[in-house]
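Example record

One chain of 230 residues, shown exactly as stored in the release files.
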Amino acid sequence: MPKPQITATSGKKPKVVAHLAEWQYLEQSMQRLICAWGRWFADWTDKVAIMRHVWEQAEAVQKIRDRLTEFPGTVHNLETPVSDRLEALANAVLLAPSHEDAVDGIYQIFIEALVKSYIGYVERTHSVHDAPTIALVQDLVRAKEQQRLWLRDYRRRRPHSTNASYREKIEEALKQSGFLAEPIPVEESAAPAGLRTDFRLLAQARHAAGSEPPCDWTPFMYGDFARDLE
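Predicted structure tokens for this chain:
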């Protein structure tokens, strides 16, 4: 049965604003996760796919922000704090023991939890009273499905079993976050994913084992092409 968005104690601002604030944080966190580990991909087709995913994440965040401004509070809704439990979840995905584990953490575990959160909201809300948010959520789910299809193709080419300890840490963080079913009361505000960790970007991109180029082409990237073509 659909739940009301505005109750006797909620004021003019509907409950979906808190949902949207959390989704904004999670979608932006996913973008940061992809950027953090994306440089490890060696194959050109995968690099192109990852760049597209980064763009899709930016579009997802912007769409959510646009929707947030349509509720009472307008632009002030964009700064709605979210629980640091979501930060713990994003950091659990970020701190993978290997690149391949990170791929599973981002594109399998994290996406699955996010999609379940979206679908759960659609099932609980009124299809007319919040039709614009439902349409937004459906767009986000379609984009996530395309990303999961990419993962399926990637795993056919590069089979991998996710590290059990890594998976358990993410699942525990999801449990502490209520599996993203309802907005979490904010006791401590979340910082951007990775900000309060020791994770550091690679100084240079690395090639996966067995995929190193036949020669070192890095010096060519720093050539003085304006004056020295050779």
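Notes: The helical segments are 16-38, 44-68, 84-94, 99-124, 131-157, 164-176.
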